[in-house]
Amino acid sequence: MGKAKRVGGKRVASKSSRSSSATAAAPAPPPPSDPETALPLATTLVERGELAEALQLAQHVLSSHPTHLTTLELAGTLLLDLGKPAEAKSVFDRYVAVDQNNASVLLYLAQLSAAKDAVAWYQRAGQVLEAKLAAAGGDVAELKEKISEALCGIAEIYLTDLCFEPEAAETCLTVLHRAIQVDPSNPDPYLTLASVQISNSQPLDAKSTLQSSLAQWLQPFMAYLSMLSDPEKMMELERTNAVPDPPRLPTFDARLNAVRLCLELGLYGRALDVLGVCMQEFDESVEAWYLFGWTYFLVGNASAEAKPTTEVAGIEVAVELPEDEVMDARSSRDEWWSDAIECLQRAKALYERQNYDDVPLLQHVEELLAEMAAKGVFASADGAGEDDDDDAEDDDGEWEDMEL
């Protein structure tokens, strides 16, 4: 490395030192601003999980290409993924100022809007998708699913933000029936329709609708699980390369909503079936354990009656208990309640550990536990359900041994 020389009383760096310093101080090249170069780089960043860096690059492109649609859509979705919905909506607003024919962007805007604005975006998305469906050939399942999603979105708005509008009830029923017509295999509109029918004091119709929803996915999925547990059948399917894909399932939250509807309509056996599917996906869900406990509590009550019923919207509806094999595993109400307590205490432990925030759920857990304790029923003697720190940390212990 060259040394500094003294020239005229001043220390001056040698040529080699000056060259080395210049090299070290050279600034990094600026990020590309043309979309054709930048977007593949942004995609790579997303694949590596570097969402903030991908967003920075997209915003850099937009500084010189403010109406580039692909970059606007990418920036909007990244902002959503980064938990910035207001900024995402602003970007999607810029998108639709240029083009209103991208159904995905329109659906994002609908979800980020409220009341009649949301309905308008859902309607526009539906129009775009219906036009594509009319022109499409071949596999149109995804288009039908998105149309059904847009129609369900309209129904949800009229059930919440616009519930007092005079057209709310009729609009809900119209769009939900259309959603089922477009995509009969989608369980979601059936669930929403069942909720509407309960609100309209039509529990028997709601029960039929809910059973139609469950028939779309629960029975096929349980048959799929049965197939997986048959080694001979699986060997034959693998030998012929004929192992089927798993049936399409509703989202985890939609399945929990289905459980709540089952409990409201007296379908206790189906509630346990759906919860069993949920637990296979995620067994640390506060709400799933709470719903298990509540279901066991209700089954315990009903097991003591010859012909159990439940009241829905002022109408008595027959309760459907679990299959005999499940019922025979517990001989009395108190056995069901003992297991209910274990599940509810598990829900409490997870609630505290996860800093869960659902005060009404926690209050209902406490009410159920208090009611059973007041009648002298507690968790089973092995202590698996005790609500203490040891049980809260025991992920591999007695909870997994419970017969659900």
TrEMBL record:
Start-end of Basic residues biased regions: 1-13
Skewed-composition ranges (Low complexity): 14-26
Ranges for region Disordered: 1-38, 379-404
CDD domains (alphabetical): ACL4-like (cd24142)
InterPro entries: TPR-like_helical_dom_sf
Annotated Acidic residues bias: 384-404
One Pfam family cited in the UniProt record for this chain: TPR_19
Name of this chain's protein: Uncharacterized protein
Native source species: Allomyces macrogynus (strain ATCC 38327)
